[in-house]
Amino acid sequence: MILRSDSSSSLSDVWYIYDVEYQDGSVMLRLFSEGAGNVLELRNRFLPYVYLQGASPVDMEYVRSLGGAAEIESVKKSSLFEEEDANLVRVRVRSRDVLDALTKRFRVWESDVSPELSYMYDNHLSFCVPYQRRGDLLQPVDATPLKARESFLGRFSHLEQTDPLKYQLIRHFFFICSQPFPAINLQRIGLQDASAEDCIRATTLSRIACIPLRKSLISGRVSDWIRSILNSSLRRNNILIPTPEELLRGDTRSSVQGALTISPQSGTYFNMVVVDFESLYPSCIDRFNLSYETVNCSHQQCTKNLVPGIESQYVCALRRGFYSALIGALRDLRVRWFKPISREGETNEERQLARAVSGILKLILVSSYGVTVRTKGLASPTLAESITAYGRFALRSSWDMAERKGLRPRYGDTDSLFLENPSFDEVHRLIDSVRQGIGLDLAVDKVYSVCVLTRAMKAYFGVTGDGKIDAKGLAILKSSSPPLFQEVFRRCASNLRDVNSAQDFERAKGKIVGCIEEAVRRIRSGEVNLEDLQHSVLIHIDPAEKVEAEVLPQAYQSIAQLIEAGRGVERREEVKFVKVKPFKHAGRVFTVKPLELVRDWSEINIEDYVRSLKSNLGQVLEPMRIDLQRQRTGKLSDWM
Predict the structure, then answer these.
(1) φ and ψ at 472, to 5 degrees?
(2) DSSP class of residue 629?
(3) Are β-strands 2-4 and 39-45 bridged in parallel, bridged antiparallel, or unpaired?
(4) What whole-number distance in Å separates Cα of residue 64 and Cα of residue 70?
(5) How far apart are CA 38 and CA 10, in angstroms?
(6) Mean pLDDT for the chain?
């Protein structure tokens, strides 16, 4: 049954907005009823609008002459960059042609906000949250359990006095995220069916990002979510949405200095404790008041509040930044509310809702820095640079604090410190010192019983307490590496699972050498499946542009042979090949073949595979003081 706005009905069941459409001067809201499975359509008159500033009487006469400008009115809006309200003219338009004409002649604001979302923002409506209907009016329903509301107030109500903007934002997102999930019949409302998990995720995204369910089901770009979150929050606070040019503030760089990495002290360590900052960049955005309008603000007295390491940048100490409060609210809501509930909630439904919200918020928070670099409508390289600067400051300050306390940091990367064999008390004293010193939260992320740091940054592996091998950035584990190489590494690393002392480690090194020698023997004797020797490379350049070159990379050697055999290869396709003894092909020397063109084992370049295996393993063997070339292992005194 389709109910329309002109149907006569009293207070109905609970309804959820799932879509909105603009057409010919009106907006159609589409809602569904969870209980009865009905669909409701509400049509309301609405004309899209733009804002003009400083329009003269001549300008206004031109606007009226366009004919499509239906309503013209003077309004006051708060400005993100100015502390005084802006006097503006709001022009509602009937056609896109009028909007284009205004954009060409005037500096306009909010022309890129879609009419559908503009209506939702203006009326403080949210997708997929419960409403009751009184005539054409929609009244929000708060179905949050009383216990949860009381607990929320106990945890966050102090912000109402200390950080009112952040409290207002966090309270809003708590409300829309805490409503029970409705039972949705996607086919009944004209949407493609999806799994229960995808439906819950899409519902959560629609609530947080204020986007229709049909869009959240296909996810889209995180930058679009953040833009909608920011725009809807600005509208709720009667703040004019800045233009992309205003956010840039004249800075058109496409990149900024990134994170800090402190070079690893290569070696093998026992009881390596990894501590990291929870959501480092979002935490810096919140803690250090980093926002579009606060970095290099207009206050002379703030110019001494310099961004660490950047003499040309400073941060406002007088005014709360909007983006800072927004990201801080989302971060606190995830870390201090939904993430704990996702593990400790009393009911499965409660944990399921919290997991969905925590997951969506994590995606948004992870991207909260990246969008400020070069995403149109969110980009501000100056802001982005200040975020990474405070991130570098946080890591360096924590490293220095650790050293002053007698701890032994061995590696630092972006948001993580690797501490060699600290006690429980030492770690928690460092965490307390960092919180008191710079106002950020460190937490224990991982503990490795054995950790091997290579000379390269972002390349190490460790054995966790439950025996899992946690490896990052190792050459031998790259996607292009043959399966045999990856399997040999895993077998070698598994010998470290029972290592609890230096003596255990010495015995494990002998087993590692034996494991490698066995792999070499199998290669040389042909006891390996050819499939396990395949390299795999993703093709980035159109093969047609490459295959005629005089010298070909190995992947394109394989492609040339496949094309000759009648098989086409496209860009972005994965190409597999094995290394063979050099041979002449069409006047060029090739060293690889696609597996299907290899006749037998005699073609395989056995010694090349042996050299490659040892070379790739060398990255992790060197810090363990294992020397394969001399066929011996280093002694304990070599690495202590």
Answers:
(1) -135, 130
(2) T
(3) parallel
(4) 8
(5) 15
(6) 91
